[in-house]
Design a protein that fits this description.
The complex is a heterodimer of chains A (535) and B (595). With 535 residues, chain A is α/β, with parallel strands linked by helices. Chain A is built from 21 helices and 13 strands. Chain A is globular and about 75 Å long. Chain A has four domains: 105 residues, 3-Layer(aba) Sandwich (Glutaredoxin), CATH 3.40.30; 210 residues, Rossmann fold, CATH 3.40.50; 84 residues, Ubiquitin-like (UB roll), CATH 3.10.20; 86 residues, NADH-ubiquinone oxidoreductase 51kDa subunit, iron-sulphur binding domain (de novo design (two linked rop proteins)), CATH 1.20.1440. In chain A, a hairpin with a 3-residue loop joins strand 3 and strand 4. Chain B has three domains: 75 residues, Ubiquitin-like (UB roll) (Roll); 117 residues, 2-Layer Sandwich (Alpha-Beta Plaits), CATH 3.30.70.20; 374 residues, Rossmann fold (3-Layer(aba) Sandwich), CATH 3.40.50.1780. In chain B, 35% of the residues lie in helices and 14% in strands. Chain B has a five-stranded mixed sheet, sandwiched between helices. In chain B, strand 3 and strand 4 form a beta hairpin. In chain B, helix 2 packs across helix 3, helix 9 crosses helix 11 and helix 9 packs across helix 15. Chain B starts with a strand and ends in an 8-residue tail after the last strand. The chains are: A alpha/beta (535), B alpha/beta (595). The interface between A and B is large, with 35 and 36 residues.
Chain lengths: 535, 595
Amino acid sequence: MTIPRMHVLFPFDPDTLLSGVKEFEAALLKELKKRNLENEVKVLETGSIGVTGKGILMVVYPEGVYYSNLKISDIPRIVEEHFIKGRPVKEFFLGEVPARFVKREKLGLVREQRRVVLENAGIIDPENIEEYIATGGYEALEKVLTSMKPEEVIDEVKKSGLRGRGGAGFPTGLKWELTRKAEGDEKYIICNADEGEPGTFKDRLILEGDPHKLLEGMIIGGYAIGASKGYIYVRGEYELSINRMQKAIDDAYKYNILGKNILGTDFSFDLEIKKGAGAYVCGEETALIESLEGKRGQPRNKPPYPVTHGLWMKPTAVNNVETIANVPPIVMRGAEWFRKLGTEKCPGTKVFTILGHVVYPGLIEVEMGTTLRDIIFNYGGGIKDGKKFKGALVGGAAGVFVPQKLLDVKMDFDSLKEYKAVLGSGAILVLNEDTCMVDMLFSIIRFFKHESCGQCSPCRIGTYELYTLINKVRSGEAKEEDLEMMIGLSEVMNDSSFCPLGQSLIMPVKSAIENFREEFVAHFDKNYRCEKCRR
Amino acid sequence: MAEMVKLYIDGKEVEVDKDATILDAAKKVGVHIPTLCYHADLSPTGACGVCVVEIEGSPTPKRSCCTPVAPGMKVTSNSKYLREIRKALVQLILSNHDVTCPTCPANEHCELQSLANYLGVDTDGLPTVLEKKPIDETSIAIVRDPNKCILCGRCVNVCNDIQTVSALTIADRGFDATIDTFFSLGMGNSACVNCGQCTVFCPTGALSERSEIDLVWDALLDPDKVVVVQEAPSIRATLGEEFGMEIGTVTVGKMYAAMRRLGFDVIFDTNFAADLTIMEEANELVERIKNGGALPLITSCSPGWIKFMETFFPDLAKYVSTCKSPQQMFGALVKTYFAKESGIDPSKIVSVSIMPCTAKKFEARRPEMRDSGYQDVDYVLTTRELVRMLKAADIDLKTLPDEKPDELMGMYTGAATIFGATGGVMEAAVRTAYWMLTGKDLPNLDIEAVRGMAGIKEAELDINGMKVKVAVAHGLGNARTLLTKVKEQIEKTGQSEYAFIEIMACPGGCVGGGGQPKGSTFAMRARRGEGLYKEDRELPYRKSHENPAIIRLYDKFLGKQGSELAHRLLHTHYFKRSNLDGACVEAVTEKHVHH
């Protein structure tokens, strides 16, 4: 057996696939063969590394060089210079990198991260169960099934302080305990992988890059709450996620990690993927359950909560992908280890998606409580094209516009709450000085109008009224009282909408108008020139 | 014993079942919480949000209609804050509502209208966002105006959950969400059976009957026409409500007086035809029992049920009585028997019926309902339409004297009057069938087991030692349950345990019909039924075969029961229908078979 001297990793995600990474890989293999380097250079396919908008990406070890925006015509040069002569080609380096060998840890977006749920993403082959096992995968499951009672698992998760990463931050251990204690002959665990929040693709990275970690967490969760059946509800557009997840499930069945008497124990557990049809509201857990049951995706009243009346009205734990992916590390390394990460009330790490006018758009995993400034200016590389920072929409479309003065806010559930903001899905949309806030708010309201399910009148009509009012602002027909009406209406929607969809519009509406009022007022003037609203 | 939970509503302690909602608890302790989409007989949808209350410890208000109680819960039902939310919510709904109250069929019966009025809602400021959608006029019986729809979901719930017809659903999303039918073909091209329960449950004017008021006025004001009217059994028990009388008050004499004042030329009564139906149907039952015909015999007076059967249970058609409904028997006789007896040219007769029912409009226009040589019944008015006509003519029912109907087809027995309540047809038929089989009167005329609001009722009768099992179902969901069982029995053993089944499409029977006053609850329907049973007890004749007008009819015109002429005028046949668009596929029983 030959040991290759170099490893070339191709992150496969929708971004790189659309850029033609498959064709590039084939061309590279052909070139390697031509030069007789097949045995010296090994080519691997991995999941996303969290970098977006940079074309075809390629990571080369042992140096840890990140290449971006590659073209097939670049192949001979890279092979000649880097693979044969050992001189990495600087002009293809990802981002503005120093003129020396670039290590992963030093590189823009991916430097100094604290990766727990993403520890394997972009490194192992997500379609190979043995690679996952080789990194210590399924050891946590074995530990749980052979040496822990379900209550002990729940206890460990409770002690870890893990909180739901879907947005609400509900303590995961408590949710599992309530489900376990709820009366019911059958129980379910559902993984919410609908990931509908605009600008968020953190769950996709886990699904694509490390599907077995999610799978392991699901089985442990099922064991803890007393479920023998689990569902992963994935948004239908995530084709690659679905394929990889399905491959992982099929392989797990072959390895007796799913199915009857898992790993020779008494525990049996089945797992199934359900594809969502793209409705934003189906990310809300009760609407998701309705959709899973084959009904129209509309939320149910809460209480009763899914922990007692969930899927088919049986006790059900609905957990986000990132939450579940945290479970195997917690079980393996212990609650104490987990609590050392992040803040006291929000231990652990958080995956953030950074988008908008930054140098390095993409995805990072850092400790809870990292400041917004750090995320935008350190990891995101600051505002691109030398522009000034104006604000950031934090938490997704149902998030808050954070102005300059709040840049030092710590990014965790509780610190954000003090500013009436939310961590939400962890999406951070960075806006530069050229952004029109009226136009931004218009986009958000239009999104909510489009995604309202129509079940309750406050949301159904309220979103449309807000849409009408923001259009008045855009066209220069609005007055001061229209802004007050928008805030008032959002408040009524917050107090009386059936589900979080209608309840949360208050956050973007109020924060946009209150933090950037001058800009809204300026639009009252019909002669005000706005590139975005008055084209 | 159910587990009880103690909580506090506006400081008042109340104890309720653990599965009760906050709204239930508030009702129990006499606290009024305004509601709009909520209806006592349907599962809550939580659509409107008007019933929100504050709960101590909850950051936002909760809907009282669908939030379960919890021990020690402290609820505030009203506050300045809650009033503001409620007003804003109604204002929002009105901003997307075609506010045409003065001309709306639901005017003065609209829950949105009264709520807006009671709360003092201000409609200024908020832009109107109504985008007009086309009105669905495809149905003969029901008109759906989406511009008045508040998407409370009641119609969908009653159509799905109670009637199991599922003609209506919510389609599209968000602001485009709308109530729709299969492939948007319209109610007239759907599985809709025209029962009209949606029009009763609809809180606004979005669902109403197709009005024939103008056509009837035209006939009444035409000097060349002889306008004959018949009133269904249940009308006499519901009309009074609309004039401030106690629910369940029977107003038959005042009803005739009102008809005369409206200008009808001849005042008859559907009850006469109900007695006739019993004569024919009891005869059919006796024949089938004696000759080993298809049993169980299933009643056929409810046209909503008939279309339901044709759509969902066409293989049971041969069990359904061939008798036309009383409305249609009456219609066939008006333009033959009455025309002959009075010497009036039947082409000059306009036959109008007052019905508790929207499906009767569909029934009257079925192509096979022309056995007199004309359309047997020209116009069908619901109770609600009649009330509007009476109000237009400023006729106050309450103050009218009691009058009598015209003789020829106006006389009736107690057996006919109970047709209007669930179980009534069964009870009436048994009274006469017993007499036909034994030559004696039923020892106790009151068959309590088939009365009341239980969804499916059963009884075993002893007819001279012969045990006869009967069943009654009202509401099509209950009918579906019962018939599924019957079908299974027949498939398995070749026969059913029942000999006779009564089915009414509407919960409560005709007193709960789709043409009755809007907003009635099942509890109100039960009280209306009791009014009819009271009238039955007080009438001189209580068995159809004792009705002198019926005896005369057979004597002078029809001959005997089941005669050739009786068959031609009084019996019908059925079709199989598509459950997608409701269209006829094929005839499933033969026309006018003489048995």
